[in-house]
Fold these 2 entries.
Entry 1:
Amino acid sequence: MTARDAVSWSAPYRALPEDIFWSPVSPEPLTGAYWVDKNESLIEALQLEPWLSDDLIDAYAGSTPLAEWSPLAQVYSGHQFGQWAGQLGDGRGLYLGVSQSGEHAFEWHLKGAGQTPYSRFGDGRAVLRSSIREYLGSEYLAALGVPTTRGLCLVGSQTPVRRETMETGATLVRLCQSHLRIGHFEHFYHRQEPDHLRTMIEFAIAQLDPDLSDVADRDALFFERVLNRSARLVAEWMAIGFVHGVMNTDNTALSGETLDYGPYGFLTHYNPDFVINHTDQTGRYAYGQQPRVMQWNLACLAETLVGSVSVETLQGLLKEFPARYMQAYQHSMARRFAFAEDNPALAELLKLQQTAFAKPGTYYPESFALISGFEGTYLSHAAVDRDVLEQAKRLWEREHEPGLRGIQNQITPTWMLSHWMLDRVIQSAEDGDCAPIRRLRQGMHQGVSQQLPEAVRLNSQPPPADGGFHLSCSS
Ligand code: AMP
Ligand code: MG
């Protein structure tokens, strides 16, 4: 068998009726394309080397697509910041199809390849800055064991793209189980097109939960699956201190994968009110609001199912969300501290963790490694509450299960993906040096619990802790 035979390609979404579910789109090429990084471990794991040879760069930069691809833009709608926004859709990204390597089926999406019928006023482009943020952010979450889209490769260019300043365009190929969003269901529900909504529901079940395809009450069971996956996802975000920043329903995947990295970030000190997105003036998407927002988004999904599932059933499931979230959060924290799941001391440890890392100048993502005694170079020392940290360490020492440390070792970061680290990496890349991106990506694959000199260098000298940090949505 040749390497090419190890992978098969399909494009199931293209079988849905054109113009109702999608539009055909040819990518628009960027000029002066160069590789910023190829995700070698992922490429190797999925046996994709023949499709990522250097000579194919033009396809990834938006010239003639590879023969295996079927580029199209999907239509969807959504609620943004709590308001119905109407039709949105892939405005600067294209579905390319699905690759199957052994057990692994991944949907491909080319982001930044030009305008589509759903671009509205946008230019269809993604800038290098935000593409690097997405590429590294998603690899970091994957390394921490959080479900997410993955970046396969990142291409830079000389094409100028206007944002607050002039920047350059980039493309990112990202892979995931499915790019279907809550907004895909909302689109047909709000247009009052029940037949198309039914087609969409059947497609989603076939893609994500095929074991339910022939079950009579599959819509209710599917909703429950989405609810459980979403509870687990937001629990992982809360556990590691991740703030998505734009949890609109069009950015919420039905697969329970982290999708659409925009103005995301990680907590510095532990602060439920932490807001990363500067257009989010009411703090709707603050760190501590994320579970509640996920439940709100799921209520939007539930509404689309009232034609086939009773309101009592949907409301009953939605009411279960907080308990399922809490269970998933405790499960995640137990894994991250190598605690037995039913150990009642976990609650006390979490209180100590939050208290020790509550002051500006501490960095919550470091708390797991510091409490559990991982070797590393940490930034939290000056402001951490020493007494409380010592109490937490003693409790951890007494209560953790050595037999569970294997998993903990894989998912405990000794270095964090800070916003200033990302800024420094982006600056280097804009100055022509992409090596720091490659070294960080390789470090993530070696394991985030291992010390990484590049990360220590890039994390040193953080900006003042009370400097107030916000990111813009512009990407
Ligand atoms: P986002 O907030 O990035 O998830 O985007 C919300 C919607 O705006 C989606 O439909 C995107 O495809 C679209 N969009 C964002 N930026 C652009 C752009 N530069 N060009 C075209 N469409 C865009
Ligand atoms: Mg989006």
Entry 2:
Amino acid sequence: MIIASNLKTNLTRIQTSAYLMDLENFLDEMHSNQEILVFPAQSSLNLHSGQVHQGAQNAYPAKNGAFTGEIGSEQLEEFGINTILIGHSERRHIFSEPQALLVEKFNYYKNLGFKIVFCIGEPLKVREEGEDVMMKYLELQYEGIDTSYENLIIAYEPVWAIGTGLTPTLKDISKIHLALKEKSSAPLLYGGSVKVDTAKDILACEGVDGVLVGSGALAVENFCSMIQFAQDI
Ligand code: PGA
């Protein structure tokens, strides 16, 4: 399975290094064969070797240039990073990233062969309008994205579940994942308020190939427990 932690704007570079070190020690000890991804804050990126794939939470679709506040592929290359998160709901909603920009990022990093975790998810208002409206909304988020890209991972993260402590029922997670799997055979992660006490059941849901975890993975021991659950399945 794929177990991913999105550290968002949390942990300094020193704290992130400690997090990665503890994680690597745990993975070594347990002989994990899970795929582990960690997305540190941009200023906490560093050289890393081990079983964990370090990824960028965001980057501009350019090698370098006049893009104030952004980093490009040259900065990622310095740290040997070839994994990126694209389309996270916080980028879509807080930073108003339009689909066209996400497609641009996707194509740029696909051409470089990056592993891309592409996020989709509906706001509460859309969900309340019923299943058909919700599925159409999710479909639009795939627009322009090559869903057959070999290094693609999709993360289904309902916007109303992110950081709120709310999650869909296990039955709903399975149902939506199975429907989404008809659109792409890429591994499909669930994200949105996954906690150490809910991860086990979510990981066991049909159609779930892993989880993308924010606040619930900030304490490395909780993230390790989730990896252990995946290993035990
Ligand atoms: P959360 O965040 O686990 O804190 O809800 C998940 C995410 O944003 O990827």
